[in-house]
Every structure is written in C-alpha cells, then in structure tokens.
Amino acid sequence: MAKDGSGSDPAAARRAPAGAAVLREDKTEAIRAAVFEELAAVGFARMSIEGIARRAGVGKTAVYRRWRSKLHLVLDVVSAVAAAGLPAPDTGSLRGDVRMLLEVAARALRHPMASQIIPDLLAEAARSPELAQALKAALHDSQEGVAAAVVARAVERGELPQDVDTRLALDLLTGPLYWRLLVVRDELPKGYLDALSGSVAAALGAE
C-alpha cells in the first residue's frame, strides 16, 4: 500500500478515531419514523425513549447519541417537517391553486397518524413554549410562504387587488379544514373542496 514520505498510511489517517460514534443515517431515519408511530399510538405524555428505540429496532443509546430528550427529538422531527414544506402550486388561476392546496392539505389531515398526532401535540404545546414554537413553524410559518406565493401570482394575473392580506389568505385556506377534520372530525361532503375553493377566492376579492 502506498505511503507518504513519513512512512504513514494516508488512508489510515483519514479513518475515524477508535471509539468514535458513527451516526448511521438509516438508524436516524428509523428513529424519526418511530417517533411518528409512537406519538400516534400513545401520545406525547406517555411516549418514551425506550418505546421509540424498541419501535425503531435500535438501542436507547442510539437515540441518546442523537437527541438528549424526547422533547428535543420531537422538536427535531417537527422542524424537519416544517423545513420540507409544500411546493406552491401554479395552475394558472387562483381558484385552481387554492383547490390544489386544499386537496393536498385535506389528504394530509385525513391521514390517521396526522389526525391523532396534531391534536395531541397542540395540547402539549400549551405546557411547552419550545414545542409551541416548533409547531407554529410547522403548521403556520412553513405554509405562509406558500400562501404568499399563490397570492402574489394572483395579483400579477390581475385576479386579486394589490392590498390583499396574505395572512387572511392562509387562515381561509387552512382554517375550515382544521376545524372540520381535526376538531369536529367530520367527513368532507362531496363537492366541499370545490365550494370552499370558490368561497376562499371570493373572500379574498377575486375578480
């Protein structure tokens, strides 16, 4: 094997030092997936590092190497969801964009895991400012940029006035679905999303 002028092996020099912890990405992803499953199964209050590790098929040490507590683990997972965000649709019309956003949101909120996890975390957020901030980023701030992009394009097309309120747009887009699917826990009637799309566009002042 080739050696440098000092007689040492360059490849050996690049190896991680003995005993260094190597965080395997597959284990990290398994733990993150297990967090969602554990939250849906037992809720935040009863969730434990032991339960997460067991569900992920790893030892507790593997979890603690990455996160120092279950709160920090949940904060990381929620923040990752927020960072992923949703792409802003561009169908060519405000109503089409709104309809697509509502369809994506409704599909996500109807997922059994989301319908169990979100209410539980919102309740826990009342006791944890850190979790409340992370949830705000995941459930509001990440979507505000999408709503702003949809509104900006509608203004450019002449569908909306220049002074339209982007935050109002986001409230109108998400509020009815959160209310019906997570609070009332009712099904969406046939044609509901089409009717809601028209109502949102009209409420924003669409021409």
Automatic annotation (TrEMBL):
GO terms for molecular function: DNA-binding transcription factor activity; transcription cis-regulatory region binding. It comes from the Bacteria. Residues 48-67 bind DNA. Signal peptide: none annotated. Keywords: DNA-binding, Transcription, Transcription regulation. The keyword Plastid does not apply. Pfam families: TetR_C_11, TetR_N. Residues 25-85 form the HTH tetR-type domain. This is TetR/AcrR family transcriptional regulator.
